[in-house]
Amino acid sequence: MTPLLKQLLILFIILLVLFLAAMGVMMYHRILKKVHVKQGPFRKLNFVYNFHQGDYQKNMLILEEVMEKIKNKGLPVVSPVTIYYDNPRKTKRKELRSEIGFIVPDSVTQPIEGLEFKQIDNQEYIYTAFPYVSRFSIMIGAMKVYPAFTKYLKKHNLEEREIIEIYEMQNKNIIYLMPVK
Fold first, then answer.
1. Contact residues for 51 (Cβ-Cβ < 8 A; gap 6+)
2. Number of other residues whose CB lies within 10 A of the CB of residue 180
3. 17, 34, 47, 92: least buried by Cβ within 10 Å?
4. Quick one: which of 94, 89, 117, 97 has its CA closest to 105?
5. What are 154-176's pLDDT values in tens digits?
């Protein structure tokens, strides 16, 4: 075997291993999972949060701040929630608006010091869920769910609205909701 052929064979094996590893990661994160969008009611949620205007990439830092405030009040930290009001493809980064926080028990009906409070109780949503395996799931879920929502909205002649993402860590799911009128 010539040295060039040997190098090509080694390169091929390395590329094959990398390809198989990438496919394994994608399969583990359920990249091929079909997204089924449904329409209907969703349960009422109590939500404590901070409002943020600016790049959505800063939301994780805000989430950690909100979690500390909730823990300091002795309340259980349930599921993280983010409400995205603007489409980043249509809005400048510095103008993007979001609310970042947590679902709190039904017994909480007032704002916690330094946080805002509201009940999420819209009657009608389009919704779906995507499995949460790791933080990478958030990106894959958005890549799969947002186009499915857009297709559903067009098909049913509905208006694009804010998107609510609920990260149910205990159920290993990300729930995506969009209110409809």
1. 97, 98, 99, 116
2. 18
3. 34
4. 117
5. 999 999 999 999 999 888 999 99
Tokens representing 58 are: 């800063």
What digits encode the pLDDT tens for the residues 4-52? Answer: 888 988 998 899 999 988 888 777 667 767 889 999 998 888 889 999 9
- The two three-digit tokens of residue 19, written as one number: 């390809």
65 and 19 both lie in a single domain: no
Spatial separation of the C-alpha atoms in residues 70 and 78, rounded to whole Å: 10
Same-domain pairing of 80 and 138: yes
Could you tell me the residue range of the domain that residue 15 belongs to? 1-32
- Whether residue 80 is found in the same domain as residue 128: yes
| 121 shares a domain with 84 | yes
Does the reported pTM lie above 0.85?
no
Q: Quick one: which H or E segment has residue 48? A: strand 45-53
Q: How far is CA 80 from CA 8, 13, 46, 99, in A?
A: 49, 42, 12, 11
First to last CA, the chain: 70
Average pLDDT, the chain: 89
Q: Based on the fold, state whether residues 85 and 170 are members of the same structural domain.
A: yes
Q: In this model, does residue 81 exceed pLDDT 90?
A: yes
